[in-house]
């Protein structure tokens, strides 16, 4: 398969951060997503880690047309189909299998697959993916690892995710092969519990102001 630029990349021009979200209620999902989008982060990764995840994807996609709703923790082809049908415009997986690579083609949804090593990145490239999630970013070598991959694999672009905060994000975004970072720090659990949507909006605004290198 020829390597095509990811349509997701085009949506990320001025977006430095994709919030990684674990929603426990549709009501929280709507409020948090609204705060994130209002704060300047329109790309959202709603992970399939809770029973309400699919319903949340559907509700947010419907209520916030200005958001680009994606699904995270997608592990199977069946989930790819389910999240597409729920209204997700992209899917994120922690790793990549051949089944998932083939399934993404058939499902007609953009997949951002996770890799953590040079061999995994090469396998993803062979399957046609040039925009990859680097996961788990901090545990898998962080900024030095991505700097090292840039030498032999400069054609790849990354969204590092895993263990990143606002300070670390700046260091990743300064790299030429990093387009954006993913992270859950913009939605602290205690802010959701307190229904403090204003705090989440402020964290989103702070993240949206991060500059790309
Ligand atoms: C994940 O999929 O869990 C993401 O990597 C989020 O990681 P974080 O909670 O460390 O930002």
Automatic annotation (TrEMBL):
It is an enzyme of class 4 (lyase). It catalyses: 2-dehydro-3-deoxy-6-phospho-D-gluconate = D-glyceraldehyde 3-phosphate + pyruvate. Gene3D superfamilies: Aldolase class I. It holds the Pfam family Aldolase. Pathway: Carbohydrate acid metabolism; 2-dehydro-3-deoxy-D-gluconate degradation; D-glyceraldehyde 3-phosphate and pyruvate from 2-dehydro-3-deoxy-D-gluconate: step 2/2. GO terms for molecular function: 2-dehydro-3-deoxy-phosphogluconate aldolase activity. It comes from the Bacteria. Transmembrane segments: none annotated. Keywords: Carbohydrate metabolism, Lyase, Schiff base. Its EC number is 4.1.2.14. Belongs to the KHG/KDPG aldolase family. Homotrimer. This is 2-dehydro-3-deoxy-phosphogluconate aldolase.
